[in-house]
User: Which sequence fits this backbone?
């Protein structure tokens, strides 16, 4: 059995002798990388792989420890930061803590035992952070997938709209360096989950741009609040729930920056998709976004200007037994009694394919179905019987 890898530690100082002493004292307990100054430290971070902890001196020429740790935090937010310095004045400590969000503030000369103990705590914190994120991402991915599949079966028109919003959001977040982009991406996927409380014909008419009665419009306007109440029951989904809640509204002044950004993007995507549904050219629909009140950020609108929705590599007819997850419907799937089962544009999931198989076995639908696929999707394997 191979030996476990030692935790990677970055030590930054402008004194070569001190760096050599740190490397000697920490040898065998950590995988130590040294850097002579802040610029060299940032280069080491960029070179990768990531460090569990970063230890920096405070007083260094060119870039002091506070500035270096602040830059390190932006480039490697998961690395735990420690400050090791002989300048223990209050202003230095405050600058480092505020700018670099340091985990420990250690004074020179620091006994080896004390430094090792602090680094072990930093490594434990780093591991806990990564494990929590992995658990969170796995849980959220499963929850989101389950909820969207439920939506695709219960309210296929609403599912189609949320899929279009996801395309808009993914297009923008791929261009703009937003922190916590996953929040708005999940919010887009779940933006219309509240439509499970709205009769399907009303959702379908609203998406088609038909006129609604006052009571019907209230039901449509209320679906974000329904979704908010559903999502707040899921741990760590509070920010996502708030983005969904304010998808068509101006967020409150005290809302978190992630919520404001996410709600603005979701609102822009919703308005754009509605414009395209009215057969407006993309340039015209984008121009309408520049006129809305309250105004949307210009950079966000610019990022949507070259959006392309529903690009397909091929269209063909297929039997239900040949369907592959990832293919999209090019026409509504309607039962023999006239009930719509899945909407045009819906992406087929394993759940929806199995449901279609059950309906086909019961003689409730007519084959073949008209589907579209991309290059990767065409090469996929059919669902096992």
Assistant:
């Amino acid at each position: 059995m191979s030996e476990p890898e030692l935790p990677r530690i970055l030590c930054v100082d402008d004194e070569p002798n001190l760096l050599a002493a740190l490397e000697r004292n920490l040898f065998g307990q950590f995988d130590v990388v040294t850097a002579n100054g802040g610029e060299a430290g940032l280069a080491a971070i960029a070179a990768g792989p990531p460090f569990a902890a970063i230890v920096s001196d405070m007083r260094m020429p060119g870039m002091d420890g506070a500035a270096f740790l602040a830059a390190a935090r932006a480039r490697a937010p998961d690395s735990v930061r420690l400050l090791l310095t002989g300048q223990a004045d209050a202003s230095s400590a405050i600058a480092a803590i505020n700018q670099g969000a340091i985990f420990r503030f250690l004074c020179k000369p620091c006994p080896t035992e004390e430094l090792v103990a602090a680094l072990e705590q930093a490594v434990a914190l780093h591991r806990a952070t990564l494990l929590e994120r992995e658990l969170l991402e796995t849980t959220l991915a499963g929850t989101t997938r389950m909820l969207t599949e439920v939506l695709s079966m219960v309210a296929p028109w609403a599912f189609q709209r949320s899929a279009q919003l996801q395309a808009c959001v993914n297009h923008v977040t791929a261009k703009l360096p937003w922190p916590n982009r996953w929040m708005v991406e999940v919010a887009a996927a779940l933006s219309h989950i509240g439509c499970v409380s709205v009769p399907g014909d009303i959702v379908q008419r609203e998406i088609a741009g038909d006129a609604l009665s006052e009571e019907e419009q209230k039901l449509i306007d209320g679906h974000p609040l329904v979704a908010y109440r559903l999502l707040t029951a899921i741990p760590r989904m509070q920010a996502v729930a708030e983005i969904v809640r304010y998808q068509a509204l101006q967020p409150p002044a005290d809302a978190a920056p992630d919520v404001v950004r996410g709600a603005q993007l979701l609102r822009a995507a919703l308005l754009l998709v509605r414009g395209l549904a009215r057969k407006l050219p993309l340039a015209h629909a984008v121009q309408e976004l520049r006129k809305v009140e309250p105004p949307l950020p210009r950079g966000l609108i610019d990022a949507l200007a070259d959006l392309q929705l529903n690009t397909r590599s091929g269209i063909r007819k297929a039997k239900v037994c040949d369907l592959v997850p990832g293919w999209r419907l090019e026409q509504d799937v309607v039962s023999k009694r006239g009930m719509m089962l899945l909407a045009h544009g819906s992406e087929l999931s394993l759940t929806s394919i199995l449901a279609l198989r059950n309906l086909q076995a019961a003689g409730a639908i007519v084959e073949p179905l008209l589907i579209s696929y991309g290059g990767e999707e065409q090469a996929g394997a059919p669902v096992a019987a």
Summary: The CA atoms of residues 158 and 314 lie 25 Å apart. The beta strands are 8-13, 31-36, 53-56, 80-85, 104-107, 314-318, 328-329, 333-334, 340-342, 369-373.
